[in-house]
Amino acid sequence: MRLINFLKVRIDENIFLYPTQLIFPSIIYHKKLDKVKLKTPNKKIIKNSFSGRILIDHGIVKAEIQDNWLLDSSDEEISYLPRRLFWLIYELTKLNNPNITLLDNYLNKFISYFYDSNYIKYLPPYILSECISNIILFNRAKNKSWIIKDNFHNNFAILACKSLVSNIEFRGSFSTCNHLINNFRALYLSSRLIQRNKDNSFFLVFWEKIKKKVFIKSGKIADGSVHYHFLITRWLFEICICAYELNDYEILNKVNPYLKSNLEIVGYLSRADVLPLFGDLSPDCPVEWLLPIANYVKESCPYSAVGNGTKGWDRIWSFENF
Predict the structure, then answer these.
(1) Of 69, 169, 275, 282, which cross-links 179 as Cys (Cβ 3.0–4.6 Å)?
(2) Assigned domain for 193 exists
(3) What b/e string do you get for 221-252 counting C-beta neighbours within 10 Å, with b at 16 or more?
(4) Which Gene3D superfamilies would you find in this protein's record (predicted)?
């Protein structure tokens, strides 16, 4: 009876579009998230988190942040750039001495806007995935830890994960396959928000379903876009880095073969004097920011080799917060 009531009240109907074997693990994982107690945020930070407007660099465009966290653009993907939170990571990694206080303030303003309006559950799952991952990566860069120390950031990530786990992008024949990897990345990178969570059953089943939808037999991504190949390889890389740093060899051993296979393609594409940009371009981040991924093509354990780079994506792992 408790489970039935839980399903009625807590679980979005979208969860029943999932592969049959994933439905129950998803419900259990949602229930774990539901048990996590939200922490008392710092009210002073919330009230004083926003002052003045400056140009924020989203990687492909610089623009002021608007009160509704949208950009004025007829292109919906451009319009939603502020809500993806990539600007948080891009601003952090593009300068040797980024303004951490400013970035924290803008992030707190973003969280306050969606937290107070209870709008988190209405964010599309891909946007939610980007939000969660970028908040986790921002805190990982600052604190060298996958545990979020800031209570406000922690609470938002928990609420966002609860919404995402009920809205993973399994849509039958309408599924966007690469989105599933991004959904997985967000939920896995944030998995240590659940204290003492050592049960990987949800992630193991989820990964098995992703494998069947996303990769060809060689383990490579069947995508004709150079930009998206770099982007998806980045997602796999971050999952492996997180698993390695958490000593989670169960997930690492599952995902690493796919990282290695796709790094081979990255290596092949990077041999040219000029990167051949064919196929669709992603609004998520500039391809130039992703180029450091190619530095790890020849590494036997690429996930353990990061931490010495000075440009783009590499800076996440070598950032020093003085």
Answers:
(1) 169
(2) no
(3) bebebbbbbbbbbbbbbbbbbbbbbbebeebb
(4) Chondroitin AC/alginate lyase
Q: Are 57 and 234 in contact (CB under 8 A)?
A: no
Tokens representing 147?
């545990």
CB atoms within 10 A of CB 191: 25
Which residues lie below 8 Å from residue 61, measured CB to CB, with a gap of 6+? 71, 78, 81
What dihedral do alpha carbons 255, 260, 266, 268 form, nearest 10°? -150
Residue 85: domain span:
1-179
Q: How far apart are CA 268 and CA 214, in angstroms?
A: 20
Q: Are 133 and 239 found together in one domain?
A: no
Q: Which of the listed residues 179, 204, 231 is the one where a domain comes to its end?
A: 179
Burial class (CB in 10 A: 0-12, 13-18, 19+), 37: exposed
CA distance 163 to 181: 17
* Structure confidence by residue, pLDDT tens digits, 218-272: 888 877 688 888 999 999 999 999 999 999 999 999 999 999 999 998 888 777 6
Q: Which residue has the tokens 């050592």?
A: 198
Q: How many domains does the chain have?
A: 2
Residue 204 falls inside a structural domain: no
Give yes or no: residues 41 and 174 share one domain. Answer: yes
In contact, 50 and 116? CB cutoff 8 Å: no
Q: Mind listing the pLDDT tens digit for each residue in 198-219? A: 789 999 999 999 998 888 888 8
Partners of 62 in the beta sheet?
A: 57
- Which of 162, 179, 196 is a domain's end point? 179
Give per-residue pLDDT as tens, 114-161.
Answer: 886 568 877 899 999 999 999 999 999 999 999 999 999 999 999 999
C-beta of residue 214 within 8 angstroms of C-beta of residue 229: no
